[in-house]
Amino acid sequence: MNAYDNALRQLEKAAKLIKLDKEVVARLSAPEKVAMASLPVKMDDGSLQIFQGYRVQYNSARGPYKGGIRFHPQVDLDEVKALAFWMAIKCAVVDIPMGGGKGGVVVNPKSLSQSELEKLARTWIRSFRDIVGPEKDIPAPDVYTNPQIMAWMADEYSQLVGKPSLGVVTGKPLEFGGSKGRESATAMGGFYILQEAVKEQNLEPKKLKVAIQGFGNAGSIMAKLLYDAGYKVVALADSKGMIYNSRGFNIDKVIEHKRTKKSIRTFPGAKKITTEEFFALKIDVLVPAALENQITKDNAEDIQAGIIVELANGPTTPEADDILYENKVVVIPDVLANAGGVTVSYFEWLQNTSHNYWSEEEVDKELRERMIPAWQAISQAAEEYKIDLRTAAFIVALDRLAKAIKIKN
Ligand code: NAD
Predict the structure, then answer these.
(1) At the N or C end, where does the chain have fewer CB atoms within 10 A?
(2) Are 91 and 98 in contact (CB under 8 A)?
(3) Can you give the CATH number for the domain in which 271 is found?
(4) Residues 158 and 222 in one domain
(5) What are the C-alpha distances in Å from 319 to residues 3, 15, 113, 316, 329?
(6) Is residue 374 part of a domain?
(7) Whose Cα sits closest to atom 5 in ligand 1?
């Protein structure tokens, strides 16, 4: 399963439905620029290790490229291209004036010391210094990158250009140009949309059972928001294993356990379950918040949840999408469900470039004002075309992207 093939199939499906201009399809079927670099890092033991780094600048019709940097052993060019393409769609979905980009490094960051990680982060920004910048291309955190890594990158870039230039990356720590509400933004945006879907279906949060795959920035904060809102979070997963408790987990305690023990797998009183069992659980809401290609033709049929909230990017393959649609499962697609992250990244960038910082209330209000209209536009398109929400989201985004592309031709 290739994430980029999946992304192009999603594009093709929506483009066909709205008879999208062929030139626009062609422009969106390949990235504008692909950059690769060998990143040399002097390790703590004195040896030299070379890591493969990428930056894909997919489309800039609506503004500077925007998108995270992933540090993961399975990163490859096609994955980065897919993620960059989805960023272009996502920014158009929430109507922010940014294009799509993404970066990555093939590395297992868990095997690096803090100083090795810092060297890698600084080397990444040095290697891509000519193509990134506050007006050109603004990276952010993604899987296994975090505010500390963003701070090293912003600092390195500022030194390179000889002036404070914090708007070069977003997702920074609050003390170093970060925005209030950025850490929780991805989950918060998904939470707002889920609440809308729940309301629309006349469901009661307190009666809903949830399973969440991934317990990092997106997954753990979503778990906490749902727990606080009365949902019963009965199953959790991270890279080390999956756990289940029919009565629901106390998420505050699980977060504390993960902080101290580095995994949720050993959480006391939890039953360990397999991946197959996880995806076949009798639940109401499933939240993939880890990696791509988790819901496939092999497990889509087993899914009991009525709603899927894709906090992860690309967790569902096109074949699985068809099965879920047939089974009347409502899939809130990644390009909408996790768009809160890039939305508040955009707010952070606005604050950095205007030197005017917002309160948490302002950030939250502005986030809602982007997320809810996006949900309404997409629901409306889904109804109008009698299609799934992903294709509807693509239709909304492609219309905006096409206008920006055509106006320059
Ligand atoms: P993170 O590094 O904070 O957390 C990743 C989590 O996934 C960890 O808990 C890890 O243990 C788990 N994981 C990794 N492999 C797994 C596997 N095979 N099975 C189960 N769990 C596994 O990353 P994140 O920022 O939370 O990103 C998660 C997803 O959300 C990614 O798809 C990312 O692209 C997407 N996303 C994140 C943001 C953001 O702002 N952080 C924004 C939009 C989308």
Answers:
(1) C
(2) yes
(3) 3.40.50.720
(4) no
(5) 13, 18, 40, 8, 14
(6) no
(7) 216
Residues 52 and 148 reside in one and the same domain: yes
- Chain center to CA of 269: 31
Q: Are residues 110 and 228 in the same domain?
A: no
What residues have CB less than 8 Å from 46, skipping those under 6 apart? Answer: none
Ligand 1, pocket-test mutation among 215, 239, 347, most atoms within 8 A of CB: 239
Q: What is the pTM of this model?
A: 0.97
Alpha-carbon distance of 328 to 395, in angstroms, equals 20
Q: Whose CA is nearest to atom 43 of ligand 1?
A: 338
> What string of pLDDT tens digits covers the 409 residues of the chain?
799 999 999 999 999 999 999 999 999 999 999 999 999 999 999 999 999 999 999 999 999 999 999 999 999 999 999 999 999 999 999 999 999 999 999 999 999 999 999 999 999 999 999 999 999 999 999 999 999 999 999 999 999 999 999 999 999 999 999 999 999 999 999 999 999 999 999 999 999 999 999 999 999 999 999 999 999 999 999 999 999 999 999 999 999 999 999 999 999 999 999 999 999 999 999 999 999 999 999 999 999 999 999 999 999 999 999 999 999 999 999 999 999 999 999 999 999 999 999 999 999 999 999 999 999 999 999 999 999 999 999 999 999 999 999 998 7
**102 classed as catalytic:** yes
- Tell me which of 102, 119, 172, 232 is the catalytic residue: 102
| Number of domains present in the structure of the chain | 2
> Distance between CA 294 and CA 275 in Å, rounded?
10
Residues 36 and 118 in one domain: yes
> Range of 321's domain?
183-337
If you measure from the C-alpha of residue 367 to the centroid of ligand 1, how many angstroms do you get, rounded to a whole number?
Answer: 21
Q: How far is the CA of 113 from the centre of ligand 1 (A)?
A: 21
